[in-house]
Amino acid sequence: MRLVLLGPPGAGKGTQAARLVAKYGIPQLSTGDMLRAAVAAGTPLGAQAKEIMNRGELVPDRLVIDLIDLRICAQECASGFILDGFPRTVAQARALDVLLADKHMNLDAVIELLVDEDALLARVENRNRVTLKAGGVVRADDNPESLKIRLEAYRAQTAPVSAYYAERGALKQADGMAPIDEVSASIDGAIGVRV
Ligand code: AMP
Fold it and tell me: How, if at all, do strands 2-6 and 109-114 pair?
């Protein structure tokens, strides 16, 4: 099963992706996680991405397209994958279509989590509290200034991705404001699984 999860920061993509991983045994491919790992490892890619990410802007399309290209044909993705945080621009969505066509693959569903923007800051603050309580480190871009820019990037560059898939009849939407179990149930419904 090959899925794309769309939604703004704090929409619950990570939470739902983790549940899908457990349920279907397919990996979550988060370009944000891959980039953070590159930053932590101090690779040239990480050095290129670090400041852009901290500001809350999007890194150049080519960087993330190459990351995804490498991963989707790896053995771990033989049964499918969940794309979380990619594609984030229409150019990335087009590039993904080309990558998949080259590999004779297609997407089973693109699911957008719809959320009330006013709730997003509170959700991210809550995520930070939980992380700190667990002794973790809060993301450098989870502060109000970067979050504002991330939301602007979402509106300007990622919202058109939903329209791109809607035009192709591939977009399913789920109410991301509902309790976590209900969101999971709507996703199951969207991908045609009866639970
Ligand atoms: P995320 O963990 O998905 O919230 O991503 C964190 C940051 O990584 C974003 O604010 C961007 O700077 C960068 N990033 C992650 N995925 C992408 C993508 N598909 N395109 C461009 N930048 C990305």
Answer: parallel
